[in-house]
Amino acid sequence: MTPPAAAAQSSRLISRGARVLLFAVLSLGFWMAFEERYLAHQECIDNLVNSSCIGPDGAHYTPGGMLWVVPSAGFALLALHAAYTLCRALQAHALSKAQKQNGP
Asked: Is 3 a member of any domain?
């Protein structure tokens, strides 16, 4: 592999790793919103008499807070897929490197 091609492949591996990290961070962020807006106040929300639960800080919590889990799950699946493709790319990179060292 020529030096520019090797640099391009390294750049692709780095961008794939960054994609895994980005999707994982986004998934975690939405999960934290789900935790704060729904799970932390689930008992109060489940015992609703009105349409919302008022927390100690004056914030209104509704059953709609459970929807934060949807983007969290979506980004988690994207992170898993990106991690899988990164592993496959790393395996292919290692295989091509080993073949190059052993010669034809």
From this structure: no
